[in-house]
Amino acid sequence: METPTLFICLYFICLSVFGLSTAADTFSSGQSMKDGESLVSSDQSFELGFFSPGNSKNRYIGIWYKISPGRVVWVANRENPLTDSHGVLAFGHDGDLVLFNQSNSVIWSSNFSRVLKNPVAQLLDTGNLVLRENYSLNSDEYSWQSFDHPSDTQLPGMKLGWDLKIGLERHLTSWKSMDDPSPGDYIYRLNIQGLPQFELISLGSGKKYRTGTWDGIQFSAVPMVLHALTKLVFFNGDDEKFFSYEAIKSEYSASIFTLNHSGIIQFYTASKRSNAWNLAYSPNDPCDSYSTCGANGICRSSRASICNCLKGFVPKSPEEWNLLNWSGGCTRRIPINCPKEDGFLKLAKVKIPDLLEFWLNESMSLEECQAECLKNCSCTAYANSDVNGGGSGCILWFGNLIDIKEYEEDNYGQTLHIRLPISELGNFANQCLFL
C-alpha cells in the first residue's frame, strides 16, 4: 500500500509531465496549471489564473474579464492566499479541483462530495468555472461550479438566492480591502422570510440597504436604469428563489454587479470600443439608506428636509428632529382606540415597511386583509403582497413601521394602509378609509 507521501510525490511527477496547453479553456485529470499559466474561455471573454490584488504580494486563483485583468470577478482561495509563485492547480485523487502550495499542502479545494472518475475543468464563456465528467463535456451537467460560490461579483446568468432543495445560498461578500480579497464586512443576500427582498448587511451594524419586497413584478428600489440596460429575472418557486440578469445592450461587451469593500453596491458596464468600465448605477439617494427617518417616518428625497413623520405621528424627540437627526423616529400623536373603531390612511407609491413583525397570507383579498388587521389591536398597517391584476394577498405589520420611502415615478412602489384613530383620520379625509 502506498504511503500518502509517496502518492503525493508520484502525483506531482505526473503533473510536471502533463502541463497545461496554451490558451485552453479546459484541463483534465493528469494536467495542472502553474503560476503564469491560465485557462481562457473559448470566446476569449474570461481568463482564469494566478494574480496578486492591488499592492499585495500574495497570490490567488481568480477569474477576470480578459479585456480587463484588474477586474477580478471570482476568487478561489480568498481566505488562504499563497505567499509565493509556486502554487499548482490540479485534480485530487477523488476528482476535486485542488490548489497546492510549494510544500504540497492543500490551500483550497472545490470540496464536493461526489467522486469523479475522469474529471474535466472548463472555463465557460459566461465566466463560470465548472467541473464535470469528461463524457458530459457538451452538457450542462456540472458536479461543481464557481457560480454556486460567488465572491463579490454577480455576472450575467449567475443566480443570487436560494436552492432550497439542497440548502444552498448564493450571496455576495465584499473584499476586506482593495488589496485583500478575503471576506470583508458586507454581505448582499436574498432574505426569503415572508416576501423575498435583497438586503445589504454590515456585519458590524446590521442592515444598510434593502431593495423592498418582491411585489409580483419587481423590487421597488431597483432603478429604471437597470431595467433599461438588462433583462432582470426573478424566480420565486417553492424549491428555488433567485435573481439573475442578462445584458440587453449590444454595445456593451461586459457587465458586472458588485459589492465593493466599502459596502457599496455598483453596476458597471464596459464598452466594446474602449473597454473602459462605466459606473451605470449605484444607490446614492439618501432615502436608500436603511431606516433613514427612523420608526414611523417617511423619506422623500425631493424635499429639502427629506424626513417627515407619517401622518398621525410626531417626532419622538422634537429637539433632535429639528437638528436633522431623524434616527429617533416618530410616535403616534394619539393612541389608537382599539377595540373601538379605527380607520386607515392610504399611502400610495411607497417602498412598504421592512418585514420585521408581520403576518402574510398570499391568497387573501385586500378587503379580507383589512378585516384581519382590525381583529388584532397590535396591527398597525396592511397592504397587498402582490400588485398583479389589481392586487392580491395580505401583509399585516405589527409595531413600528421601518424604512418607508416615497417614489415620484409612476409604476413604482405599493399602497400602504396605516391604522389611525378616527379622530386623526378626520384631518386627512380625502386619503382615508373610514370603518
UniProtKB/TrEMBL annotation:
<dbReference type="Pfam" id="PF00954">
    <property type="entry name" value="S_locus_glycop"/>
</dbReference>
<comment type="function">
    <text>Involved in sporophytic self-incompatibility system (the inability of flowering plants to achieve self-fertilization).</text>
</comment>
<feature type="domain" description="Apple">
    <location>
        <begin position="338"/>
        <end position="421"/>
    </location>
</feature>
<dbReference type="InterPro" id="IPR003609">
    <property type="entry name" value="Pan_app"/>
</dbReference>
<dbReference type="Pfam" id="PF01453">
    <property type="entry name" value="B_lectin"/>
</dbReference>
<keyword id="KW-1015">Disulfide bond</keyword>
<protein>
    <recommendedName>
        <fullName>non-specific serine/threonine protein kinase</fullName>
        <ecNumber>2.7.11.1</ecNumber>
    </recommendedName>
</protein>
<feature type="signal peptide">
    <location>
        <begin position="1"/>
        <end position="23"/>
    </location>
</feature>
<feature type="domain" description="Bulb-type lectin">
    <location>
        <begin position="24"/>
        <end position="144"/>
    </location>
</feature>
<dbReference type="InterPro" id="IPR001480">
    <property type="entry name" value="Bulb-type_lectin_dom"/>
</dbReference>
<keyword id="KW-0245">EGF-like domain</keyword>
<keyword id="KW-0325">Glycoprotein</keyword>
<feature type="domain" description="EGF-like">
    <location>
        <begin position="283"/>
        <end position="319"/>
    </location>
</feature>
<dbReference type="InterPro" id="IPR000858">
    <property type="entry name" value="S_locus_glycoprot_dom"/>
</dbReference>
<dbReference type="InterPro" id="IPR036426">
    <property type="entry name" value="Bulb-type_lectin_dom_sf"/>
</dbReference>
<dbReference type="Pfam" id="PF08276">
    <property type="entry name" value="PAN_2"/>
</dbReference>
<dbReference type="InterPro" id="IPR000742">
    <property type="entry name" value="EGF"/>
</dbReference>
<dbReference type="GO" id="GO:0004674">
    <property type="term" value="F:protein serine/threonine kinase activity"/>
</dbReference>
<keyword id="KW-0732">Signal</keyword>
<dbReference type="InterPro" id="IPR035446">
    <property type="entry name" value="SLSG/EP1"/>
</dbReference>
